[in-house]
Predict the 3D structure of the following.
Amino acid sequence: MPTELPRPIYHKPLVYLNRFLVFLQVFILGGLATIMTSRIRFQAISDSIFEETDLLMNSAFADFVVRNESVLILIVLVVGLFIKEKRLTEIGVKITTNLLGGVMLSAFSVLLIQTLYQV
């Protein structure tokens, strides 16, 4: 005697959508990690353009974010992403949180890239 109700037919595409959104967030976090660990390259560009300041690209935001220590925050976000996926059970809530997370990570990426390439 089954204790679990059968899943509706539309459940499988939602699972694939959720997995895609999780993959997208991990991909964005990997791109951010690459940018954050490239301080030496950005510092060389910054020194040639902005000779009078010690800030990276003449921005306190870029100077604070683009450093190796910031990758720890990204590692915590990846771990939190997978813990959230295990704890949440309703597919609609998972998709909503992953969509909002992807939008926020994308907005942060755009802000960081715009700050670094403002020239």
